[in-house]
Batch of 2 targets.
Target 1
Amino acid sequence: PAAFQPQVAPVKKERKKMSTKKRNKIVAFSIIGGLIVVVCVLGGLFVTTYENAYALMKQGNYSKANQTISKLPELTGNVTIVKKISSAGTLAEKGQYDEAREELKELSQYDDARYILNQVDLMQGLGMIKAGKADEGEALINTYLSNMQDDADKTNVDYRRAGAYLEYGDAEMALEIYTELGDYQDSAEQAK
């Protein structure tokens, strides 16, 4: 019977030893492959972070853009530029208009910096109207408008001007502007 047959150990084939040269090549290729994967992943994260920060900056969310771009090392000039522009935008959001202008003037060759510099004029102008300094505010808003070519933007600025006058307490001026705007957004309702 099969139960009484002696067990024979399976015959192991002896493996040929790999040469040191071949083993070193495999190790080297493995290390290089691993490094390539790491570089690709880090590069992808770098690009994604930069693109996110740039998109936030373009949306006018300067403080969030500044937080995002600050995570990156300044490996390229573009990162440095986005950092400086978003930092200036953050200053403007805080009402530090003169400091924002100073940071942006050195970057005036870039469209994004010029755009935000114009936004600083608008933001400061509206703030001045709210503070009761209508003449200075209107001058800054006119500077802003002279740099912008979009009529739709002028209509939006007028709507915001009316809101600033209303916030200051000059209901007469606000009513005049809202009336001129007609049915833009809720201008007709505001004019009542």
Note: The chain has a mean pLDDT of 83.
Target 2
Amino acid sequence: ASWLRDFASGRYAVLIAAAVLIAVIAVGGAVYRSHAYTAAVEKEILSIRALYNQTRNEMRSYQNSRQLERNNTGSVRFLEFYAKNGEDIRLIVRSGAVESGYETAEYYYDGGTLYVAFVVTRYSQRTRGENWYCFKEGKLIRWLVGKEEKEISRDDSSFVAEGKRVLAVGEKIRSEYQPEEPAGERLFPHME
């Protein structure tokens, strides 16, 4: 146990101190990067909330049109498009039966880019699932689940895949938009 005598005499003290210092710096750097990421996301979330509120406040001035969406199983969903000046889609509401119940999804756009999706699935009278998705430049930056808005970690294995799935659905629906004359009655008066 000569290494033990050397250790006790302090020969390895400098190496141990250096290793501890490197570990502290590495952990501290990771914490700092994580904090910096969180601060950047919070800043983006504030701008997304402002844009969301602006869209909600301006909805009455948007042109509104409706379409039906049929899938290959024959089920029908209702699509309602809200477009500024008839062309610039700001909101799409999609509702209808799904395998697990009834789903209403709201897709919010700015300049053709999805920035928020809110999906509510009603499984029964008393049970429902809610998902809020916030996007920045085509990437999911926040995913909240349930009424309690539990945040799904960006490190969760499904985070990136779920973001890509929601973006793809939103893009598919947006591509189906065909401007028409403004609709009279709204299909979804709860949106006003």
Note: The first helix runs from residue 2 to 9.
